[in-house]
Amino acid sequence: MKAETIVITGFPGTGSSTVARMLAEEFGFEYVYAGGIMRAMAKERGQSIDDFHTEVLQNPEIDRQLDAELTSRAAVGQAVIESRTLPWLLGPDVTAYKVWLRCTRAEQVRRMSLRGRAGVAESKRLGEREAVERDRYKVLYGFDMQDLGVFDQVIDTTAISARQVAELITAELSG
Length: 175
Description:
Blueprint: E1 5-10, H1 16-27, E2 30-33, H2 34-44, H3 49-58, H4 60-76, E3 79-82, H5 86-89, E4 96-102, H6 105-114, H7 120-141, E5 153-156, H8 162-174
């Protein structure tokens, strides 16, 4: 295998969580979900996830703390990490295979509707959330989320299943 750590990145509805869990199971790696860590941090503070996101926007140290934890975990290896920032933050000393998943907005919304969250309002919210994240990380770390040059593999998941995506990644890692 080409890497001891696999980093999966994608906006909601692209299949990133599903694919990351599949790969972790397939390789016997730990699944590390940045969003889950953020939810736990919100719970520790007695906040809803929306209130916590507002606090994160006002206090960049929270992002830095989370990303430092993820970077340390990536260096250990034997993990599939789902994170929006890690691909740009890992240095050359960490052997990680980085994958960006994308799909059309209509497909994102369709998939999210299967989880009970969708519609025109959600579609608009997704676009706004992506813009906020791009701006936030540009200011905080100086990278451009639209620069996909840091990725080993970029996959459009619009017309393929999560299993097919996992197989494409596995084929690259094994080849």
